[in-house]
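User: I'm curious whether this sequence folds into something compact or stays loose and floppy. Could you predict its structure so I can see for myself?
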Amino acid sequence: MSDYSHLAGHRFPGGRFVLSPHLAWLWADCAMAEPDLAVAHPTLSYYAAMRGCGISIQELFDLLDADADSGAMFGECVLELNGALTPGSVYEIEGRIVDIERKHGRRAGTFDRMTFEISGRPDGERGPLFRVTNTFIFPRRGEAAG
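Assistant: Here's the prediction. I'll summarize afterward.
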């Protein structure tokens, strides 16, 4: 049975995300909010994090020997905001895997619970403006409890 706990602490390549005013307007419209040229909808932090972290969902799955057909599931998401996202701004994005825990449930069987966090800060600033913490569940069919 593969053990993925060694991936805890694995850093993503990171990158930059430019929040275009056009995207901010469209996102607000889709969220049925009033578009604002000065402040973007707070849920855009999720999009910025996932687009700017330097790794795709498939590449993340590859780290855990999973693919779209393996039954991987989105577990939970926590958004932490320390201010407002500004259309037209550039954000420096970085992320890492926080933890991978092997678990076993009576009905779910054996699975790995991976938690990763991605943070973004305005270009040239020190502290994060937002942090996105995600948990994904990776079923391990046919593997016994550890």
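Summary: The chain has a mean pLDDT of 93. The chain has one domain: 5-139.
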